[in-house]
Design a protein that fits this description.
- With 228 residues, the protein is an alpha/beta fold.
- It folds into two domains: 132 residues, Rossmann fold, CATH 3.40.50.1000; 82 residues, Putative phosphatase, domain 2 (DNA polymerase, domain 1, Orthogonal Bundle).
- The protein is 47% helix and 12% strand.
- The protein has nine helices and six strands; from the N terminus they run E-H-H-H-H-H-E-H-E-H-H-E-H-E-E.
- Strands 3-2-1-4-5-6 form a six-stranded parallel β-sheet, sandwiched between helices.
- Strand 4, helix 9 and strand 5 form a beta-alpha-beta unit.
- Helix 1 packs across helix 4 and helix 2 packs antiparallel against helix 3.
- It comes from Winogradskyella immobilis.
Amino acid sequence: MTNTIKHIFFDLDHTLWDFDKNSALTFEKIFRLHNIDVNLNTFLKVYEPINFQYWKLYREEKVSKEDLRYGRLKDAFNKINVAILDTIVDALSEDYIRYLTTFNHLFEGTIEILEYLGDRYQLHIITNGFKEAQEKKMIASNIKHYFKTITNSEMVGVKKPNPKIFNYALNSAKANVKESVMVGDNYEADVLGALNIGMDAICFNYHNEDLPNTIKRVNHLTELQKYF
């Protein structure tokens, strides 16, 4: 990184906030509440790729928030051949959002790296997550105070990798692309989204995705120190 960097923009889910762990705990809770008798690991194995695909469609404006919340659950139950009433799917969908923010596991090294970077740079969030959930997650996990600005896709009307959300976040932070860098786990939404507007980017590649050699990456958050 050049010494001109002043602003670091972070993704939230799958980058700082351990979505998969918190999501699994949420499903465990709501399945128990609704007496859903399925093996949690079996369900999660099919749900997680389905959820990933729905989020891709959501980023591309091909499904609504409501379609995402319903469809990812209905499709997962169908995949494991479990017949379930739509009313139950709707109730599970509502309770999933309600209880997801009550779990607050962060990736290892999150607080350490935010403390380190927060003394040196202005930190910000750019997230595609639902507005009503994201602030609750940050408060419950005690990280909101590290960030000067929080930009949510619902505020802007578009989602990463759309350039508009990055430009909105830059304007909110009173930053320009040459003094800013994006850190996120999603190659398409976070990394390419930033690079396409001229902002530098680092991939938090905890999932060991195959990336082009030109892409900066870390496998653990504290490794960010080598770039800053």
